[in-house]
Amino acid sequence: MYPAVPPPKELSGRSVDFKLKPGWRYDEAKGVFVDPNGVEFAAPRLPKNSRVLYKVPSLARSAPRKLSGTEQDLQRYMQVICRRRARRKRFCRPSNLSPAWRKCI
To answer: How far apart are CA 54 and CA 60, in angstroms?
Structure first.
């Protein structure tokens, strides 16, 4: 997903974008990923001060049944914002992705 407006320079290189598999969601209050059956999985360990965010928060809070197919697709886009660029590089290596990440993305 390419932003219509470029991100601020201080954010460039510090984020990792990903898309959840169909049926998965992220519970922001608990900090867990939830599969289509309602089973919760703890978010994988991230670098200190990192955040997991929905790219379109207003759609993330909407009931999927009330959304069009395109809106449901947009609802699955997420972003991890890391504190420092060096941490992001280490985090993004395929060998460092935990099984929990592999299940939901």
So the answer is: 7
Structural domain containing residue 64 = 15-104
Question: Is residue 8 assigned to a domain?
Answer: no
How many domains would you assign to the chain?
1
Residue 1, in any domain of the structure? no
Q: Can you name the residues that pair with 52 across neighbouring β-strands?
A: 80
Whether residue 70 lies inside any domain: the answer is: yes
Confidence of residue 37 (pLDDT cuts 50, 70, 90): very high
Q: How many CB atoms lie within 10 A of CB 45?
A: 11
Q: Tell me the C-alpha distance between 59 and 67, whole Å.
A: 8
pLDDT tens-digit map of 6-30: 666 666 567 788 899 988 989 888 8
Name the nearest CA neighbour of 78 among 102, 48, 103, 104. 104
Spatial CB neighbours of 65, under 8 Å, sequence gap ≥ 6: none
